[in-house]
Design goal:
Belongs to the glycosyltransferase 2 family. Residues 1-7 have low confidence and may be disordered. The protein is of the alpha/beta class and 340 residues long. The protein folds into 2 domains: 12-241 and 317-330, Spore Coat Polysaccharide Biosynthesis Protein SpsA, Chain A (Alpha-Beta Complex), CATH 3.90.550.10; 243-313. It is built from 10 helices and 8 strands.
């Protein structure tokens, strides 16, 4: 039998997405770090990967970042600019960059340099080991932000973890690795008000985290003022789904069930002389019946509103994907001596 020469396994191809608002000072250094990964490298676990493209999304910031993006795109053919018509915010800019990407994997990171591109290998190793569609960087050191921003972030994540079913809000981080077809599907269906990570949680089969040290934000001013922090908090809370509306529905159903029971108790009390106030029993019976009817009606309305909310957020009924054995998760190329 003729020997068939085995072809080397292709490296994992990664698209890096960076939403840019105030990156004029930090982008050149960040791009220089990413440049080291534009040729095939080996992760700490022995897997080969390379950064195919760096998508810089200009979110119309105030510091002249657009000129820096133009210069970087002219210098490097793997830098791809995406221009937005106006400032839409970090999540919209990230989705725009994901839509323009073409890699097997998508990595999103911030412009300020706090996310080290060298850790992409750790994210990829974790995805392959855990067979995860999404891997979040879990900060191993205190977040390099102010107390107000940290408090708003922790509060919103705690609330969403209680309200949104299936969303591991405490793991959410803007430094994330997502399977390319999942990321681009999310960018296609996500509604205008949805929080990106909540949308990802709707379709991701498995989510993992890996400890990563966060760096300082440098000397650039923070793009998060009080207004943006409140908006960020509210977007995350509203993205938690229809659980609060479901509470209204449950309250309405409970009122319908309890109203006759309470009415019987009141009538028995009236008959046995436990209370003799004229008209009190009939008033309470009518009040309970009316309250039950109102809450039930609100519950029905809440169900319809919940359906409309899910449609507005873009929550899909299903997401078809290719066989995972045919995709990057099925192509493990651990080098000899590499760890798992």
């Amino acid at each position: 039998m003729e020997n068939v020469e085995e072809r080397p396994v292709e490296p994992h191809r990664v698209s890096v997405i960076v939403p840019v608002y105030q990156g004029s000072r930090t982008l050149p250094a960040l791009v220089a770090e990413i440049a080291a990964s534009t040729t095939a490298r080996v992760t700490p676990g022995g897997r080969r990967y390379l950064v195919d493209e760096l998508v810089l999304v200009d979110d119309c910031g105030p510091d002249g970042s657009d000129a820096v993006i133009r210069a970087l795109a002219a210098e490097h053919d793997w830098v791809r600019p995406v221009w937005l018509s106006r400032n839409f915010g970090q999540h919209a800019a990230t989705l725009a960059g994901i839509s323009a990407s073409g890699g097997e994997w998508v990595v999103t990171l911030d412009e300020d340099g706090q996310h080290d591109p060298e850790d992409i290998g750790l994210l990829l190793d974790t995805a392959m080991r855990e067979q995860a569609d999404v891997v979040y960087a879990a900060p191993s050191n205190p977040p390099p932000h102010g107390p107000t921003r940290n408090l708003a972030s922790r509060s919103a994540k705690w609330l969403v973890s209680k309200l949104a079913r299936g969303a591991r809000a405490n793991d959410f981080n803007s430094y994330r690795l997502v399977l390319g077809e999942v990321a681009r599907s999310v960018a296609a269906y996500a509604g205008p008000g949805i929080y990106l990570d909540v949308a990802i949680s709707w379709v991701a089969r498995r989510v993992a985290t890996v400890p990563v040290a966060m760096r300082g934000e440098g000397d650039r001013p923070s793009g998060y003022d009080l207004h943006r922090l409140v908006s960020h908090f509210w977007r995350l809370v509203l993205s938690s789904g229809t659980t609060p509306l479901r509470w209204v529905s449950v309250s309405g159903a409970a009122a319908i069930v309890l109203a006759p029971v309470i009415a019987v108790v009141l009538l028995v009390g009236r008959a046995t002389g436990r209370w003799d106030a004229p008209g009190w029993t009939s008033t309470m019976v009518l009040l309970m019946a009316a309250t039950g009817a109102i809450l039930f009606a609100l519950g029905v309305i809440a169900e319809y509103v919940g359906m409309a909310v899910n449609m507005a957020m873009g929550k899909p009924l299903y997401l078809p994907v290719r066989d995972r054995r045919d995709g990057p998760l099925g192509r493990d190329d651990v080098a000899p001596g590499g760890g798992a």
